[in-house]
């Protein structure tokens, strides 16, 4: 895994995340600069989200970034394009008032 590369991670239990892989140990991944992808719209699948980003960023619920998170029970790791990375990072934080 390339350290500076951006990935989408799908896990059993904690859901979907996007970020840079710091470390991988079996099915446990440590991400940096990570955002939880709570809800996305404008991409039919995580594969499309990783390739193109979302077409509807205003209707997505992406949490605030965290410096580092360990994700257990990882089921899927998808490498993102630069376009998708910039798009995902550009989605406004989902804030509950």
Description:
This protein has 97 residues and is α+β, with helices and mostly antiparallel strands. The protein has a single domain, classed as SH3 type barrels. Helix content is 16%, strand content 44%. The protein has 2 helices and 6 strands; from the N terminus they run βββαβββα. Strands 1, 2, 3, 4, 5 and 6 form a 6-stranded antiparallel beta sheet that branches. A hairpin with a 3-residue loop joins strand 1 and strand 2. Helix 1 crosses helix 2. The termini are far apart. The mean pLDDT is 94.
CATH domain class: Mainly Beta
Count of individual beta strands: 6
Helical percentage: 10-25%
User: Strand fraction band?
Assistant: 35-45%
Radius of gyration: 12 Å
Low-confidence stretches: none
Spell out the helices and strands N to C: EEEHEEEH
Shape: globular
Question: What is the second-level CATH architecture?
Answer: Roll
Structural class: alpha+beta
User: Number of helical segments?
Assistant: 2
Largest sheet: 6 strands, antiparallel
| Overall number of domains | 1
CATH fold naming: SH3 type barrels
Average pLDDT, all residues:
94
End-to-end separation: 38 Å
Which terms summarize this structure?
SH3 type barrels, 6 strands, 97 residues, single chain, alpha+beta, globular, six-stranded antiparallel β-sheet
């Amino acid at each position: 895994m390339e350290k500076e590369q951006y990935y989408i991670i799908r896990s059993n239990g904690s859901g979907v995340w996007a970020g840079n892989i710091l470390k991988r140990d079996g099915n446990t991944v440590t991400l940096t600069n990570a955002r939880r992808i709570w809800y996305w719209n404008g991409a039919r699948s995580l594969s499309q989200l990783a390739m193109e980003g979302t077409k509807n960023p205003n209707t997505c619920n992406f949490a605030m970034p965290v410096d580092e998170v360990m994700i257990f029970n990882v089921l899927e790791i998808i490498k993102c394009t630069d376009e998708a990375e910039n798009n995902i990072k550009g989605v406004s934080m989902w804030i509950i008032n």
